Amino acid sequence: MTVTPDRPFTSVMTVADREPLIYVDPDAAWEALERDELRWKAWCRDIDPTLPHRDVVVRSLLTLRLLTYSPAGAPVAATTTSLPEVVGGVRNWDYRYAWPRDASIGVAAFLGVGKHDEARAFLAWLLSATRLDRPRLPVLLTLHGKHPAPERELRNWAGYADSVPVRQGNGAADQHQLDGYGWVLDAAWLLTQAGHRLYSETWRTMAGFADLVAARWREPDAGIWEVRADTTHHVHSKLMAWLALDRALLIAGQHRTSPRRIRRWTAARSELREEITSCGFDPERGTYLRSYGSSDVDAALLILPQLGFEPTGSSRVRGTIDAIAHDLDAGTPLLYRYPPGHDGLPGREGAFLPCSFWLVSALAGSGQVAEASSLFRELIALSSPVGLFGEEMDPHTQHHLGNYPQALTHAALVQAALALRDARKESLTVRHGDAAPHETR
After folding, report:
1. CA-CA-CA-CA torsion for 71, 72, 73, 78, nearest 10 degrees?
2. Is the per-residue pLDDT at 224 higher than 60?
3. Would you list the DSSP string of 70-101?
4. Which H or E element spans position 195?
5. pLDDT band at 431, cuts 50/70/90?
6. Distance (Å, rounded) from C-alpha 283 to C-alpha 88?
7. Which of 111, 118, 297, 408 is packed most tightly, with the most Cβ within 10 A?
8. Torsion-angle region of residue 195: left (phi > 0), alpha (psi -120 to 50) or beta?
9. How far is residue 183's CA from residue 246's CA, in Å, rounded to a whole number?
10. Cα 94–99–105 angle (5° rounding)?
11. Which long-range contacts (CB under 8 A, 24 or more apart) does 399-403 make?
């Protein structure tokens, strides 16, 4: 059967968890689809009309919503396993799990467009799913909030375009990733800023995460990119540890917290700042680095303008943005997440799409709005015909690579649009003399 725009085909299958398959009468099925379409249109109706390229942003928000497992509220990273990051290569991973990091980024995305119920649901899932591991934050969980089975290769599976191995499970589950705590505590702070005071259990959980960061921030970790090599002192991870403590201290202003705890968090935050600026920054090149003692940059550092660690217009922020845009350029508008081949795995990988959207946010946040707008237009033109993005893209063919559709990419797209919207509003405010330019802490 060939489907064309003038000859559509609709197929309906009803499947309920642990229930028999049910035959649905075609007329009833069509009516149900129409009712469902009306519900989705109603859901989209109140999304901010001032968002740049609003239709593209709405498609990403719908994708994030559809990537949420409704019975548990778990946000799945992607619905697929082993779609290759390099066709014919071995970089094939199972993404059918929920990462607390992705859930936290989703909180920011939904809050930014006024979808508070969705944002609160993500945090509620996080609290429920991590209850047996606290104060440790699991790297990833099943959609039912359990630890995944060990990673294994499925023998005799051909794989997509003969890309093997096909994997089930994800070995990153056993890693120590320090950055996740920063994402989670930042999401909690954003909810607080939006007027949602944290419940006592929620605050106890967040305070426990901050305690763990204060105790373990000196340890090396696997980093946001889950590199399967020796752990190291990733600068991005240290920045996110600083963020975790900073946001915990901000939230503590609204909750009863012991002075001893406040002193411990404050001291650890100060020590982190001193170490990051001395060990993680290259004064000759004017950029923060991928790890202590490294000469490489890391595209994850593009979130620097959002943290409040440095003033958004500082020379260190701009120098880091410029170094990443230069060193990790995969051909405009694409970026590599780190220098290709520097991860202990054979072969190269594609350009990492979330990083390009983070570059949009970084440019907008540091006042380079025209450049950010132009880059955003180029990026959204690279979507699939139905507005979806994978995790990576072949810089030469512009074919999507990796598991698909990718929640992290769509969340980064929403964040980029929000950064552009806010930068434009701030620019208009300053231009009309209503306020002085915003300075972060």
Report:
1. -90
2. yes
3. TTTTEEBS-S-B---SSTTSS---B--SB-HH
4. none
5. low
6. 41
7. 297
8. left
9. 12
10. 130
11. 401/83, 401/84, 401/85, 401/86, 401/87, 401/349, 401/350, 402/78, 402/83, 402/84, 402/85, 402/350, 403/77, 403/78, 403/79, 403/80, 403/81, 403/82, 403/83, 403/93, 403/95
Task: Give the Å distances, CA to CA, from 75 to 102, 148, 306, 316.
Answer: 7, 15, 23, 34
Nearest residue to 182 via CA among 144, 150, 224, 146: 224
For residue 375, give the 3-state DSSP assignment.
helix
CA-to-CA distance for 300 and 313, rounded, in angstroms? 18
- Rounded to whole angstroms, the Cα distance separating 410 from 351 reads 15
Do residues 381 and 369 lie in contact, with contact meaning Cβ atoms separated by under 8 Å?
Answer: no
Half-sphere exposure of 439 (CA within 13 A, CB side): 4
pLDDT of residue 126: 86
Give the C-alpha separation, 302 to 299, whole Å: 6
Rounded Cα gap, residues 168 and 173, in angstroms: 12
CB atoms within 10 A of CB 211: 17
Give 335-394 pLDDT, tens digit per residue.
Answer: 999 998 777 777 788 999 999 999 999 999 999 999 999 999 999 999 999 999 999 999
Mean pLDDT of 394-416: 96
Integer Cα distance of 418 and 198 in angstroms: 24
Residue type, 388: L
Distance between start and end Cα atoms, the chain: 59
Distance CA 162, CA 43 (A): 40
